[in-house]
Task: inverse folding
């Protein structure tokens, strides 16, 4: 790990692999609203969001939360229409709710994250997005970043390539492979404990947690080497201007 205080020496690494929701864009809050509506009959809370669904592939999140409430549903298939009868149907209903909220409200990237991305560009450091969401590309488009990242490993990739989602390290390892960098030479940036655990399991050089509100202790417990409230904190003062 190459860091001092909260400042990161970004040029010491060859690649940075960033989660999307809660790291690049504030869509984590949109996801939480959609999950809360989906699980309203079971009294879904912010703590439930962080514990059971944050950062996980959608169907895994449905299954994890329902298990916490002692509810079992058949798995279903990805083709199930949005509904409540199967895990897949509930996951598809959550997806529909999220897309409605995204289309209605839009999304803008975090300024601090954009400042770091610009700094990475100045040093020629490779970047990739690693998101469990199947909506990663639509979110990037909505944020005006559709052409910003050459490589996106997301929920679609999980299905198409048959890889395991977070907290397994496979998604980050695939992104590192795509940008041509070994894990010790790359940084993982995550706001979810499942993503931090994935970065630690993959033996990445730096696993950086971003606490957008009340998750610092959990990120550290999951193995984050460093936790900041905003990525702007990682820049040298002159670079943050």
Result:
């Amino acid at each position: 790990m190459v860091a001092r205080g909260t400042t990161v020496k970004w040029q010491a690494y060859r690649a940075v692999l960033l989660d999307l929701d809660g790291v690049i864009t504030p869509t984590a809050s949109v996801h939480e609203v959609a999950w809360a509506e989906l699980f309203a009959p079971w009294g879904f809370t912010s703590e439930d969001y962080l514990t059971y669904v944050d950062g996980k592939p959608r169907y895994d999140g449905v299954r994890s939360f329902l298990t916490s409430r002692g509810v079992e549903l058949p798995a279903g298939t990805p083709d199930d229409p949005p509904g409540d009868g199967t895990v897949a149907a509930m996951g598809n209903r959550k997806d529909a709710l999220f897309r409605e909220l995204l289309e209605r409200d839009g999304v803008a990237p975090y300024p601090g994250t954009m400042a770091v991305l610009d700094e990475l560009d100045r040093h020629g450091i490779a970047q990739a997005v690693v998101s469990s969401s199947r909506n990663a590309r639509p979110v990037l488009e909505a944020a005006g970043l559709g052409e910003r990242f050459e490589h996106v490993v997301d929920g679609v990739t999980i299905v198409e390539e048959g890889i395991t989602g977070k907290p397994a390290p496979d998604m980050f390892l695939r992104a590192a492979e795509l940008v041509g960098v070994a894990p010790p030479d790359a940084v993982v940036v995550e706001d979810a404990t499942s993503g931090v655990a994935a970065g630690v399991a993959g033996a990445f050089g730096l696993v950086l947690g971003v606490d957008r509100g009340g998750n610092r202790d959990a990120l550290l417990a999951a193995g984050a080497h460093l936790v900041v409230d905003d990525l702007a904190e990682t820049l040298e003062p002159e670079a943050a201007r």
